[in-house]
Amino acid sequence: MPEHDVLIIGAGLAGQRAALAAAEKGASVGIMSKVHPVRSHSVAAAGGINAAISVDDDWHSHAYDTVKGSDFLGDQDAIEVMCSEAPAEVMHLEHIGVTFHRNDKGEMDLRAFGGASMKRTAYVADITGQALLHVLYEQLMKHHETVARYEEWFTTSLLRDEEGRCAGAIARDVRSGRMEAFTAKNVILACGGAGQAYKPTTNGLIVTGDGIAMAYRAGAPLMDMEMVQYHPTCLVETGILITEGARGEGAHLLNANGERFMEKSAPNKMELASRDVVSRAEQIEINEGRGVGPDGAGIYLDVTVVPRKRTLEALREIVNLGKDFAGVDITREPIMIRPGQHYIMGGVKTDIEGRTPIEGLYAAGEVACVSVHGGNRLGANSLLDTLIFGRRSGEHAAARAAGIPMPTVNANAQLREDSTQLEAIIGRSRDGRRVSEIKSELGETMNKQVAVFRDEEGLQNALETIGRLKEEAGKAWIDDRGTVFNQDVLGALELGYMVDCAEATVVAALERKESRGAQFRTDFPERNDAEWLKHIEISLNADDRASGPQVSYSPVTITQWQPEERKY
Amino acid sequence: MAEVHDRPPEQFTLKMRRYDPESGEAPYWDQHTIELEPHRSVLEAILQARDRFDGSIGIRCSCRQAICGSCGIRVNGEPALACHTHLDAAKRSAKDGVIEIEPMGNMPVLKDLIVDMDAVHWKKIQRVTPWLLPKQPVPEREYIVSKESMVDVTQTMGCIQCGACVSDCLAMEVDPGFIGPAALAKAYRFVGDPRDDQQFERLNDLAQDPQGIFDCTHCFKCVQACPKDVNPMGQIMRLRRIATGDHHIVDKNNGERHEATMVGLIRNYGLLHEAEMIPRSYGGNSWFAKFTPAAGKELLASLPVIVRGLMSGKFNPKIAIFGHKIPKQDLKAVQAIYDKIESRPERYELNLYIVGEDEAPEPVAASTEGSNS
């Protein structure tokens, strides 16, 4: 049975950064991912990473922008940590090899991004996430003697000892089908969000809420789950993301009348208001009949106003995306986009060291809710979040490991339970529905009822549908009877994870009877600080999961910025 | 604007090579007909077949937008990313209109379309010391380097490790130990990075390795295969030019001498003088080279090839001894090209990421008014 001081589940930016940080502190580290690390969805982050590195900038300004972006739901102590540590982190990344774009003086160049009061986003063309992820993986290859990599291992559950502490995990080697128990003094969840609970979504097919659901089932509270970000610029048909960097470089948004409609809702920042504001403005244009395209369901993003050389150099990826996935040359003509599910601000509740309320269990990146994003995340703050809190989790877990013995946990019962469950799925008779059908209905329901605009009736409908889908998921059947790369059976487990995440999201959205950040309730259209300036937490009783999601509240931490009216 | 999404769904037939390692059976062909709009991707077609007909179809995939690099396969015999290949294009290049889907080559198949990238691709990546060896002292802030140098290495940074180039590398087919296009492109990412401290050491290592930069046969397959314009062969050629031109590395594989000989012979004769290639590559660039022991030995070893060439009429004894003759005017034109290139103060390096100045604006200025059309 493999043993590690720190076992990291997920190998995107947060996981890899955590692994490197923990190893540097001398801990024995294992990092596990259901895909090869460079396939992790961090790879798709395009635009850049925020840090107040310019001599004219100040991290306080970055922090204020983030607080305002969060619609004052973000915890300000955590935001201060993230923004004040950002410059050193970005320099560290530069030193280990990230090929950040330079200005004419040879210094790192910065681009404008939504919700930011100045140019603060460092970038590598529009493949920033890919560049960061591949450079961190270079470092993992460099440190291959101190960091054990379990690539293509799927985690089925978390292990807990008799005192309730997290003591490892059960996982399946995707390649051989072998089940294995991993003992660890600490587990860091770093396995991303749950975007696949929506259809369409910008997120990859692997983003299925595994970590959120596993922690939730183990009794860890989920926080801010109602806050689901719709990105303003996704391709109409496939939901593929067009980076905010496009608007950062000066691109316009136009309705069917050719108007820059952002004038109405954000006269100062225009297209560079925060994402919730821009997505809502677009949805209003579409709903009120000023959309473009055959069904009037789109908005034009006009990149032709950006100098062509600059577009080809700094937005190369989306030039190709436009050509390959929409048949449009964005340097010559506008492209049709619309808001699409992109990110979940919520996740497993943690403190600023990445600790969840379960001892020995940490979380970092999109799986976690620290909460630095509150009601709405600013563009280019997600990469920063993964790296800062990935590093902090790794360091803290390594320090904790140094002071405690390896947990003694009898993993056999759990190992057997998980193996039996997988075998049961493989052996199911074909009298229910296919996994793919249920997943599709879940995604469409979420995208219809739990989207940019929400109301009581729609959310209740969604909750009912999810309840039914949960039951159906428990009986869903698959085709693959094998053990080697049985992706089919893993898909059934992922469906279970997604349904749990969706349920928590809807329960939280029903609970919050106000409009703040990404949550806009048409039946409660105003922000209501008196009653709702607080986090909503959703949890399961680990010993009595059948009693369903429980709602509780926790206060928002305010250090220096009192809530005020939010205008862009 | 081009409203590609107006096109109605059509039927497409996929013929997939399947392999179940647990069955004890050989690979077999499996066929499914799906319905999608013609500009949708081959990946979406495979996923539709998996969702509707057979959940056991094995393929790695995630992002659906050509950035995660998971879904490298072969479509109609050519390496490609499934998510980056349109169905209509795939149908056009298919025999009998049936789109043929296979796993990538040069790597062992684990199941269906899933290959063992660790055993080949990642092992080769690990071979090139794939991390920055930074110049010391590390500055307090960022390294100050030129904008062009960072844009330049971003081309190889853009490699998504999909394996398409590895799949169809002809040199690797013959010599599985060849470091190969992806790993050598990765090597350029450090060699071209002005922050790296080990440019000479890296190049010397790759030049002296008999399966290194001089093992590439210049076939362009990887350039064609790459879905991200990384231009792996171009990067290999740049590694060679920096190794030989800037560092004057003379490798024990005779790669440098072979290249110098070829360039020199064409300058002198306008065409390749085949009979002089081997002696000069091994014995130095002179007519007397053929009498050096190393060249003699190599000539002797190459006798069967030479005989075969003579027998098949690929060349005759006269050309072999005196070389090709081309008209004087043509020779002058060839030499003029040499003079022009050699008179440049700096070497030109072609990089697709560095583009020219802004072109004159096209008549799309009506974007605001014209967008509601």
Features:
heterodimer, A: 568 residues, alpha/beta, Flavocytochrome C3, Chain A, domain 1, Methane Monooxygenase Hydroxylase, Chain G, domain 1, seven-stranded mixed sheet, five-stranded mixed sheet, 16 helices, 36% helix, B: 373 residues, alpha+beta, Ubiquitin-like (UB roll), Fumarate Reductase Iron-sulfur Protein, Chain B, domain 2, 3 domains, two-stranded antiparallel ribbon, 7 strands, globular, disordered C terminus
Structure description:
The complex is a heterodimer of chains A (568) and B (373). The longest helix of chain A is centred in the last third of the chain and has 25 residues, at 487-511. Helix content of chain A is 36%, strand content 17%. Among the domains of chain A are: 231-340, Succinate dehydrogenase/fumarate reductase flavoprotein, catalytic domain (Flavocytochrome C3, Chain A, domain 1, Alpha-Beta Complex), CATH 3.90.700; 412-555, Fumarate reductase/succinate dehydrogenase flavoprotein-like, C-terminal domain (Methane Monooxygenase Hydroxylase, Chain G, domain 1, Up-down Bundle). Chain A has helices at residues 13-24, 59-69, 76-95, 128-142, 210-217, 245-248, 262-265, 275-287, 308-314, 316-326, 382-402, 412-427, 435-449, 456-473, 487-511, 529-532; strands at 3-9, 29-33, 49-50, 110-111, 121-122, 147-151, 153-160, 166-173, 179-189, 222-223, 228-235, 252-254, 299-302, 335-344, 347-349, 361-363, 368-369, 534-539, 550-555. With 568 residues, chain A is α/β, with parallel strands linked by helices. In chain A, α2 packs across α3, α3 (76-95) crosses α11 (382-402) and α13 packs antiparallel against α14 (456-473). In chain A, β8 and β9 (179-189) form a beta hairpin. Chain B is an alpha+beta fold and 373 residues long. Chain B has three domains: 7-115, Ubiquitin-like (UB roll), CATH 3.10.20; 118-246, Alpha-helical ferredoxin (Fumarate Reductase Iron-sulfur Protein, Chain B, domain 2), CATH 1.10.1060; 255-342, no CATH class. Chain B has helices spanning 42-52, 87-92, 118-127, 147-157, 164-167, 170-174, 181-191, 199-208, 221-225, 232-246, 255-269, 274-283, 293-301, 303-311, 317-322, 328-342, 367-370, and strands spanning 10-18, 28-36, 72-75, 78-81, 98-102, 109-111, 114-115. Chain B is globular, with a radius of gyration of 25 Å. The relative contact order of chain B is 0.08.
